[in-house]
Every structure is written in structure tokens, then in C-alpha cells.
Design brief:
single chain, alpha+beta, 343 residues, Aminopeptidase, 6-stranded mixed β-sheet
Amino acid sequence: MIKIINYSDRYESAWSEYVDRSPEATVAHPVGWRKAMKTGLGHEPYYLLALENDAVKGVLPLFLVKTWWRTKYIVSLPWIDYGGLLADDEPTARALLERGQQLTKELNAEFMEFRSVDENHLGMALRTDKATFLLPLDKDPEIVWKGFDAKLRNQIRKSQKSELSSEFVGLEGLDRFYKVFSYNMRDLGTPVWGRVFFRAILENFPDKARLILVNKDRVTIAGGLVLAFKDRLYVPSASSYRSHLKYCPNHALYWSVIKYACEKGFAYFDFGRSSYDANTFNFKKQWTQPPRPLTWQYYLNRIDEVPSINPANPKYKLFIGLWRRLPLFMANYLGPKVIKNFP
């Protein structure tokens, strides 16, 4: 008989062991996100375990996202591209889903969202407008290099001729990364995640999270967050100064991470999610094909349609235009307060 319980610290090792052995687990499932999201974004965690005779049979990490206009969402997981439930079998999956639905009702949330890779076939509403790109790797970076087309190789060579240097750092590089990241997010018209959030990620994943910095003449002009999980390396956030795009800093950043991943023995590099035909989608598809579709799944509680909370939504165009005009200090102050309302 399956029993659903709430996470407690005594189950931390059991949760981690289950994620380690689950073939469907993603970078979103390690328990470290429980503290990172709570500390960095203020979202309340609700981590559910399915037990059978005290053996873990499934897990479901959830967070309550509360907006300043008093709307609530249940999300697995906010910010990151992946999430959803893991289960050994369909009865366990259904038990976890039913408890999640019950929690959504108890908390009076609009919906519950699973950021899944594949559909769980439990009758949830679907959203399929996003994809990621997975680049297969080899221990020899030269083999990966030969798989790129001539245009991409020329852009990478241009970054090398521009004498850009790359370095992998930890917390000591956070200020340099955040300076570039926050500036670029303001220019895009997008509220920025707070520095405290990135600090929380680096602190809660000391062996799995790093920053990559790309420098020109000793000035950092691009940076990214790099996360390791099982056989893949993943970059969920990266930015560069638009004024330095002529040096191809983004190509320097991704090629440096790909080479590092090859040398460390990872099997895949994950470029992270993009909406189909977005600028980031078109940049990533240069590196590998085809896109890997992502299936986000929903339990709709207080709404009738799958939500569309993203910057591509036309109703946000005016907001984006106004945000781009903010002074940087104001955008950095307001950004973390605004963006945490949008999971």
C-alpha cells in the first residue's frame, strides 16, 4: 500500500538515493533545490514522498508561488526547466498526483504545473511550446568540433581571434557574473533574478554548480551558471554585453563549457529551454539538431485554460518596453521583487 508523506530531514538521504537511481530524474529533482528556492526566492516547498513499507517508491517536489496580487500557483519547479513527479509505477504516480491535486485545492492555487520532459499519461492538460537541445559529447572535444557546420566553427574561431579567455569559478565570481547578467536582463526588458538566488544555488550545490566567466582585456563580458547532473552539463542562465557581441562572447562561453564537459566525461550538454522560434532557440539549434520537445503538464483548479506566463505573451510588450528604460540600479532593486511572481 502506497503512503504519501511530507518531506522531513530524516528522509534526505532516502530522497537523494531515489533520485540517483531513477532513470527519469532531472537536474530539478535533487533535494538541494528545496533550500535554494526557499532561501533565494521565498517560495514555500512541499516535497512529497511515496512510501511502501518505508521504501521510497516515488517523489514529487512542489513549490507554492504567491504573487503580490494574491494569486497562487503550485509549480514543479519554478525557474528551472524541469520537474514533475518520479515514480516506480503508475499506481505510485497516480497517488502522488492525487496528493498534489489535493494540495492545490487546499492552498486555493490556480493550477499545478509539472515541467516534465515526457507526458506522464495521467490525464493532465498539456503545453508543448518549449524545447531544449541536447548535444551528444565525446571524450575528445575535437570530435564534437568536427560535427559543427562551417558557420558555427567560424564564429567560435572569431571569439578565439578576439583573444577572449574563459574561467570557471565559484562564489568568488558571483559579483562579476551578476553585473553582466543583470545588465543584459534589463536590456531585454526582463526583471532579473536576485543575486541572493544565485548565491543560494552555489551554496546548496557546492559540487554541482559553477559559474563560467568570459573575459576581454581582463573585463568580464559574458557569464553563465553551469549545473552538473548525472551524465550531463546544463546552462540554465547565460548573458553577455550586447556592446561586445562583435567578439562572439556567447560562442566562447558555450564552446568552453562543451570542451570542459567532454574533458570531464559527461555524455551530453543541455542548452536549456527555449520557446520555438525564439532568438535563443535559433541560437541553440546551430549547435545540434533536432530539438527535444518538453511537455509541461497541468492540473487546472481555478482556471479553465493552460496558462501562458512568459515574456512572449503580447500583453507583456508594454511592460518590457518600459522596463528597458529603467536605470540599472532601479531595475536591479525592483527586478527580484517582481520576477518571483512569475514562476
